[in-house]
Amino acid sequence: MNATTVVAIAGLITTTLSAIVVPAIQGRIAARVSVAGREHERQLADNASIREQLMAVYVEASAYVTAVELRINDLTTPIEFRRSGKLSPLPETDNITARLRLLGNWQLFHHWQKLLSAAESLWFDLGEEGPQDDHGSYYTSPDDPGVGRVLAELKTVTSDLRSAVGVEPPSEPGH
User: Fold this and answer.
1) More confident residue, 49 or 40
2) Helices (H), strands (E): how many in the chain?
3) Between vectors from CA 125 to CA 120 and to CA 129, what angle results, nearest 5°?
4) 152 has a pLDDT exceeding 90
C-alpha cells in the first residue's frame, strides 16, 4: 500500500466515523442540554413556588399582626368608645407558625414566637381578671406591661416581615 492509499483509507474511515459518531455524540449532548434545561426550569419553578409560599405566609402573619393591633386598640379603648362591643376573633396561628418554621428566616420565626408568647400571656391575664362590664367586654390600660410587651413584639415582627419581603420601613413623620 502506498501513502496515497493509506491517506485515502484514513480519510474514508474519518468521514464514515464522522457521519456515524458525530450525530450520536451531538444527540447525547443535546439530550444532556435538554435535561439540564428542564432541571434548571424545574429549579426556577421550585424557587418561584417557594417565593409564592413565603409571600403567602408573610401576608397571613401580617394579617395576624394587624388583628392583634386592632385587638390591643380595642382593649385599651374605654368600652363606651369602642368600634364594637365584642372583640373580633384572632386568626389561627398554628399553620402560620409551621410554615414560618419551614420557610422563614430564623430571626423572623424567633420574633414570631415571642409575639405569640407575649400575646397569649396578655390574653390569659385578661381572662383571669374577667370581663369589665355586663356585656363581657374587657379593658386594660395602655400602660399595662403586658400591652407594652405585645406592642414591642408587634413592632419587631412587622419590621422583620418588611425586611423579609424587601420593603424599607416607612420613615417616621418629621424625619
Assistant:
1) 49
2) 4, 0
3) 145
4) yes
